[in-house]
Design a protein that fits this description.
The chain has three helices and three strands. By secondary structure, it is α+β, with helices and mostly antiparallel strands. The chain has a single domain, classed as 2-Layer Sandwich (Alpha-Beta Plaits), CATH 3.30.70.
Length: 78
């Protein structure tokens, strides 16, 4: 069963999309402060000029709900 697959918890899921590398770094820092490991990667599509260009921010699937809570909180932390 897919629900019982331990690898499913470690699969990466997009938790946010940032408009630039600095914005993605800020999102990753906010998540790190909450104990959630995140990584950013350039999204496929639009042009990239230096530190600009959209970025996807990924977290492990098992941390997705908590990461969304953190990012939805007014100060980024709960």
């Amino acid at each position: 069963m897919a629900e019982d697959d331990p690898q499913q918890d470690h699969a990466l899921q997009v938790v946010a999309t940032a408009g630039s590398v600095p914005e993605a770094d800020l999102i990753c820092q906010r998540l790190a402060e909450a104990g959630i490991q995140a990584m950013a990667q350039r999204s496929i599509g639009g042009p990239e000029w230096g530190a600009s260009g959209s970025q996807y921010v990924y977290v492990q699937a098992r941390q997705l709900a908590r990461a969304r809570e953190v990012l939805a909180a007014p100060d980024g932390l709960e």
